[in-house]
Structure formats: C-alpha cells, structure tokens
Amino acid sequence: NKTISQSRGHLLCSTDLALKAFSGKDKLLPCKAPNDSDLENLVLEWTRPDLEKQYIFLFRDGRPFLVSQHEKFKGRVELSDPTLLSGDLSIKLHNVTQQDKGRYECHIFSKSHVRKRSIKTIEVSPGQDVSLPLKTTDFNVTSVMWKREDDPERFVFLSGMDHPHHQHPQYSGRTELTRDQTGDLTVRLRNVQPGDSGTYHGRIVQLQQRVKRELRPSEPDNIVILKVLSSEWHSDYLQLRAVLQMCTFCLLSNPRAVPCSHDRGVGKKVLNEM
C-alpha cells in the first residue's frame, strides 16, 4: 500500500513492505518528488515509525548522513538516483529479511520553506538569570529543547521526553520552562557564569513529529548568542558606555563643544579587549 500527503514544504510518501518476496532478495521502496520541487535544496528522510531515534536513510546538503542511520540498515540501503536531481527519491533495500517487514515513510523537506528564526544577542554579568525565548501558535507541542551549537550532545534543556539523562551536568538544576496559554515556551537559565557563554539553538517539536527524530540535528526555531562578561570587564564596559552616552549628549546639545573629558585608560582597556 502507498499513501501520499503533502503540506507546505513537506511531502510524505508511505509504503508498506509486506515482504512477499523471498528473504535475501532486494526490494525497491518507491518515492518521487513533486514536479515543482527544488531538487538542489532537498532534505530526504526515510524512516520507519516502529524504529526510534535513527533513520533508515538521511540525505541533506547534497550527501547522505550515515552517522544517523539505524544499525540494521548500514550498508544495505542505496539511492536509485545518488544525486536526487531526477526527482527519483526511491531507495533499494538489499538482502531483505523478515525483520524488515513494516511501514516505511519517505519524508521530503524543502529548505526554502524552513521556518524563519530570530537571532538574539544577550550580554549579562555573572550571577544573573537569562531567558531563552521560544514561542508557538501551535499548541500540539510535545517537547522543547535547547542545545549548545559547539556541542550538539550538550543539552541545556529538554522537556516533554523521557530522556532526563541527556541534560548536561553544567545546566542541572538551573533551567525552568515557562509555559502558558499564549504559546510562550521560554526557558530561564539561572545564575549564568562565563562558561555559559556561547550560541544556543532552540527547537520546538510538534505532535506529528516522531520522537526518533527529536534528538538529531534540525533547523533551530530560535538562536541566542549569550555573552557572560567577567566582573571586571563588565564594570569597565559600563563605564565606557556611560562616557560615550555623556559625550553624545554634549555634542548633540552643542555641536561646537569640545567632547567631554573622560578616563582614557578605561576606554582604551575596554576597546583593546573587545
């Protein structure tokens, strides 16, 4: 049996593999991209609903991602068209066994329809709390996650899934989810320290998305660049900002006025460290 459903930026082909053929044979699982697809910017996922956490086959950025492939299918899956440029997204499954029986789903995503995301820079001093904002208009949300860009395995926050061990010890006991009827899914990170500086990726997982894909890379819904300034640096930074504001006010009040004097040592030190 084969079913097809399509929504903006996403196509699903579903095929039942009954395995009437003899074990040890090869089996073609068919899927074809719509005629208007952007084949050069296509993300292809072959999955099985009963298998969690890993793909049957994943293709994006012009190449297969074998690191995310389920162990049972390593070395057994081949694209009919290795480039996908013909629109043929079928895969051939080699040496089938009775354990391969099940429903196989081909998910096609267009990168041109990836949700727009914001990038926010936050500068704070040590000991303060910061908000990692996420907001949705779709209330069928199963989980919220924040991760560090420099370490995809370092979960800052992971809610709605049975994987509490995935949170990095650095953030244990310091995160809290704000969830209300307006769709606010902001996560508060308490008592930040210089070691928390970095780029944070936030993602919202909807009800229709399967758990087995939640732990792997996807396009973030929001990005926060957190800069936790050292106490000394932050003090000098505030002094310099105050001086610049005073000088700007002086010049606006009287364009012919000589810029007000200030502690050049502080300004030079801060500028050299920036």
Describe the 3D structure:
By secondary structure, this protein is mainly beta. The chain has 3 domains: 2-113, Immunoglobulins (Immunoglobulin-like, Sandwich); 118-228, Immunoglobulins (Immunoglobulin-like, Sandwich); 232-273. It has helices spanning 231-253, 264-273; strands at residues 2-7, 10-17, 27-29, 42-47, 57-60, 63-64, 77-79, 91-93, 102-110, 118-124, 130-132, 141-148, 151-159, 175-177, 187-189, 198-206, 222-228. The longest helix has 23 residues, at 231-253. It is elongated and about 85 Å long. It starts with a strand and ends with a helix.
CATH H-level superfamily title of the largest domain: Immunoglobulins
| Strand line-up across the major sheet | 1-2-9-4-5-6
Give the oligomer, counting copies of the same chain as homo and different chains as hetero: single chain
Order of helices and strands: EEEEEEEEEEEEEEEEEHH
**Regions with little confidence, pLDDT below 50 for 5+ residues:** 1-9, 207-217, 261-274
Q: What's the number of extended β-strand segments?
A: 17
| Net shape | elongated
CATH class of the largest domain: Mainly Beta
How far apart the termini lie comes to 61 Å
Number of domains: 3
Mean pLDDT: 74
For this structure, the CATH topology of the largest domain is Immunoglobulin-like
Classify the helix fraction into a percent range. Answer: 10-25%
Total DSSP helices: 2
Strand content: 25-35%
Largest sheet: 6 strands, antiparallel
The CATH architecture designation of the largest domain is Sandwich
Rg on CA atoms, Å: 25 Å
Supply the helix-strand structural class. Answer: mainly beta
